[in-house]
Amino acid sequence: VERTLSIIKPDAVARNQIGAICARLEKAGLRIVAAKMLHLDQQQAEGFYAVHRDRPFFRDLVKFMTSGPVLVQVLEGESAIARNREIMGATDPKKASPGTIRADFATNVEENAVHGSDAPETAKKEIAYFFRDDELC
Ligand code: ATP
Ligand code: MG
């Protein structure tokens, strides 16, 4: 089994869609093995998205990710990283396949409801960014 980091972003939390999104994750066979609700500060958001530091949307992205609480979760399952990306859908909801989380819950390419790690190394790094070992089930 594999683990991945999921974030339900401020837009979806503000719209009261935590339950609906978690139901999608669980229906896809992903198990929630750790969860915490956090309101990221600027430093936490900048650190998390450091790989995008030089992208033109970086400042807006940090502003968005600190605009309200998020739900950070560790998901476990068979091919959890790819499975989560699959049910999330494309970054831009206009390009996301019907029935995906982003097709149904995202507003636009920035306010796109969820995050999911994109590879085993990033999953490991992102999980450690938010959770200590003794916080994982
Ligand atoms: P995530 O990393 O959040 O799971 P992703 O891997 O699909 O999403 P990335 O390319 O890693 O997309 O971009 C990280 C986040 O930055 C996106 O989820 C989105 O919130 C924001 N973003 C990406 N591209 C754009 C853009 N062109 N304009 C504005 N915001 C963007
Ligand atoms: Mg990404």
Explain what this protein looks like in three dimensions.
This protein is α+β, with helices and mostly antiparallel strands and 137 residues long. It is built from 7 helices and 4 strands, in the order βααβααβααβα. A 4-stranded antiparallel β-sheet has the order 2-3-1-4. It is globular and about 35 Å long. The protein binds adenosine-5'-triphosphate (ATP) and magnesium ion. Adenosine-5'-triphosphate binds at residues 52, 57, 61, 91, 109-110, 112, 115-116, 118.
Q: What key phrases describe this protein's structure?
A:
binds magnesium ion; 4 strands; 19% strand; 7 helices; four-stranded antiparallel β-sheet; binds adenosine-5'-triphosphate; alpha+beta; 137 residues; single chain
Question: In brief, what are we looking at here?
Answer:
The chain has 7 helices and 4 strands. The protein has helices at 10-14, 18-27, 42-48, 58-65, 80-88, 101-105, 120-130, and strands at 2-8, 31-38, 70-77, 114-116. The radius of gyration is 14 Å and the shape is globular.
What ligand molecules are bound, each kind once?
adenosine-5'-triphosphate, magnesium ion
Give the total of beta strands.
Answer: 4
Helix content, binned percent: 40-55%
Q: Which structural class fits the helix and strand makeup?
A: alpha+beta
* Poorly predicted ranges: none
Q: How much is the average pLDDT?
A: 98
Radius of gyration: 14 Å
Q: How are the strands ordered across the major sheet?
A: 2-3-1-4
N- to C-terminal distance: 14 Å
- Give helix and strand order, one letter per element, not per position: EHHEHHEHHEH
**What is the chains' assembly state?**
single chain
Shape annotation: globular
**If helices are DSSP runs of H or I spanning 4 or more residues, what is the number of helices?**
7
User: What share of residues are in beta strands?
Assistant: 15-25%
Largest sheet report: 4 strands, antiparallel
GO molecular function: ATP binding; metal ion binding; nucleoside diphosphate kinase activity
Subcellular location: Cytoplasm
Subunit structure: Homotetramer.
Family: Belongs to the NDK family.
